[in-house]
Structures are given as structure tokens and as C-alpha cells.
Amino acid sequence: MVAAVRARKAWWARVQESSGTNGNGGDQSVSVITPARDAAVTLEATIRSVAAQTHPVREQIIIDDGSVDGTRDVVQALQDEFSFLRYVKQAKRGAARARNLGIEMAQGRFIAFVDSDDLWLPHRVACQLPAFAHPSVRLVCGGYRVIDEQGGDTGRSTLPPAISNYQQLLRVNSVGCLTAMYDTWRSGKCYMPHIPRRQDYGLWLQLVRDGGVVMGCQAIVAAYRCRAGSLSSNKLAALSWQWHLYRRYERLPLLRAVQCLASHCCAYRRKYRVM
Predict the structure, then answer these.
(1) Alpha-carbon distance 78 to 118, whole Å?
(2) What's this model's pTM, rounded to 2 decimal places?
(3) Can you tell me the distance from the alpha carbon of 133 to that of 131, in angstroms, rounded to the nearest whole number?
(4) 2-274 belongs to which homologous superfamily?
(5) 251 to 64, 147, 203, 262: CA distances (angstroms)
(6) pLDDT by position in tens, the chain (length 275)
């Protein structure tokens, strides 16, 4: 296990060295998509973590999905300090439609995601942009650590595989939404399916379905806040939507869908490691 981890880190170091510091040249602008619903308590910390990036973002679009608390007030109070902030409010329509509205509004070349209760580490964007120098890369992600509702470190973290193709991604969703980024010049603007859960996974599969790969940054680049009762914490309910995604959107045969779902369940049990 230790040898495998060291090999992945060495591989990633070679990728960064061969890519150069910028990775692409030309337009390096990043649009950040943040859906928010009743997020007044955590949203400021999320925004400040985006503002702290060593590679500044072009914009962060906050899509207020029908909040009834002070979410709007939090954003407005920070807009004088952070000129990159954009705010739009919609009726309560769900995370998929909120993120898709943000994607539609985005002006940057690269689309990145962070939810309103998660945090980025300062090197998140700078660590990932070099990977797009490789023409086969359609999506870049990274590792993240898990924090509790109060922001305390749980001691758990996860790293994605250094590289994954469509078939591998079907078996294991190794992409954390808070670490994902894609290139609109290469893939166009791609949107999430309108389902309550696993809509981000649907987008990742769409991006690599016709070829190309996911490249996993071998570093912790974000912090995922685990909250009781959140959509992503309700794993059993999410499985039914994953099945729906396999059968309706990916059109997998019955046996193949069963195999992929079983593989996903096994992978989740060993997903996190103790730091």
C-alpha cells in the first residue's frame, strides 16, 4: 500500500514537471460554481477559501436555490471585498439545476465546483491546471479531507486514482465534486442531469464517455464538510439514484449495472484512510 501511494505521487510529480507551471498557456480563467440553500452559517468560509487561491479565479457564482435565511446577506456583505463574486437567486429547484444555471452563466474557460459548506485549500486551482496540458484529459480532480459540522478535522481523507477512464469511473466514482474541474474549450459546456442525487457523477461520466480520461491530482486540495442529514451523507438513498443513472442515462445492461453498483459499494467501504 505504501509503495503504491509513493508510486502515484511520483507519477503526479512527473506529470507536473512535464506540463510546466502553467500547463496550458493562453486563457487560464476559472469560474467557480457554488449552489447554496440556507447556507448563511458556512458560506462566508467557503467564499474566503476561494479568495485565498494562489491562482486567482475569474468569478465565483453563488446560485441561491430558494434560501429563506441570510444567504443573500452574506454574499452582499462580501461583494465589496471580493469583486469576483456574482449572485443569482432562483426558486427552489435543486442542486442540479442550480449548478447548471451557474455553468450557463460562467465566463471562464475552466469550470470548477465547490458547495456552500465545503472549503478549498489555497493550492487547489494551481495544482490542477497543469494537468490540462495533456490532450486526453477531460476532467481533473484531487484529494480531500473530511471535516465535521464545526470544521474540525476528522482524521479521514481520500485520494483519487492518478488516472481513470470511463469504464473505471463506472465502477468507482472517485471524483469529489468539490475538487472537480473541466475545460470548456475542450469539452464545451456540459451540464448535469436533472436528478436529485448523483447528478455530479452523471456529468463526470458524460465528460469521458466518448474517450479521454480523468486525471487525479495526488494531493489534498479541499475539505469536505460531513453533515448529518445532508443529501450526500444519505448513502442508502443515493444508491437508488446511482442505479437510475446507470440504467437511464448510461443505458447499461442489467448485469453490467449490477456489477458496477456492487463495485461502487465495495470501493466506498475502503474509500477513506486515517491521516
Answers:
(1) 17
(2) 0.88
(3) 5
(4) Spore Coat Polysaccharide Biosynthesis Protein SpsA; Chain A (3.90.550.10)
(5) 32, 36, 15, 17
(6) 455 445 555 555 555 554 444 456 689 999 999 999 999 999 999 999 999 999 999 999 999 999 999 999 999 999 999 999 999 999 999 999 999 999 999 999 999 999 999 999 999 999 999 999 999 999 999 999 999 999 999 999 999 999 999 999 999 999 999 999 999 999 999 999 998 889 999 999 999 999 999 999 999 999 999 876 555 556 777 788 899 999 999 999 999 999 999 998 887 766 665 54
